[in-house]
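Design a sequence for this backbone.
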């Protein structure tokens, strides 16, 4: 029975399509590698207010709800843009799109490492999967091919990066926490680089810049 089951599973595998299979594997790998649940780490605030949305005191300055939102949003961006970039390296038709996708995937892995480290330092709980919209974008891209895939990948990531950049800019102007200031400044450099890379593909129309 076990042998028959294994053969049946292997026969079904190709029906997923190579690109969809790569996406599934990438999402699973990213989630597994990044799975972190932080409960009162050393140096973090012990107060339950950090989970309830209030501002708490830390030795690096006040930690606000907005500061925690930044960590959560950046984490979720990492969790969908890493597998998206990995998939685009395999599926994109244009060499420049594949190149940009590889850089973005690698840099989001670096950013995710930093995000988890800061969250642990400050005692912030992080999500372990993308949000509903981000999952739908991954599904959308998995059904595209050729030039249509390239355009969808670039436009989805460009729009997402624009939203995150606005969030980071506002948070940087308002945060009083020195650890968050440093993290946000680093994150803004990543996001700005990715925006420039995506625009360098020539697939971002003027309407997408508003």
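Sequence:
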């Amino acid at each position: 029975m076990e042998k028959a089951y294994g053969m049946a599973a292997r026969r079904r595998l190709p029906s997923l399509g190579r690109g969809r299979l790569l996406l599934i594997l990438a999402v699973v790998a990213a989630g597994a590698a990044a799975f972190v649940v932080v409960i009162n780490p050393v140096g973090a605030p012990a107060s339950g207010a950090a989970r309830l949305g209030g501002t708490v005191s830390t030795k690096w300055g006040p930690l606000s709800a907005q500061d925690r939102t930044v960590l959560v949003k950046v984490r979720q961006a990492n969790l969908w843009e890493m597998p998206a970039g990995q998939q685009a390296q395999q599926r994109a038709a244009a060499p420049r799109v594949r190149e940009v996708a590889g850089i973005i995937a690698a840099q989001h892995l670096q950013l995710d490492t930093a995000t988890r480290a800061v969250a642990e330092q400050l005692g912030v709980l992080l999500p372990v999967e993308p949000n509903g919209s981000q999952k739908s974008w991954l599904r959308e891209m998995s059904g595209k091919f050729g030039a249509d895939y390239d355009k969808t990948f670039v436009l989805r990531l460009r729009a997402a990066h624009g939203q995150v950049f606005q969030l980071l800019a506002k948070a940087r102007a308002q945060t009083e926490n020195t650890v968050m200031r440093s993290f946000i400044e680093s994150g803004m450099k990543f996001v700005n680089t990715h925006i420039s890379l995506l625009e360098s593909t020539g697939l971002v129309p003027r309407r997408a810049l508003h």
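Residues 1-16, 31-52 have pLDDT under 50 and may be disordered.
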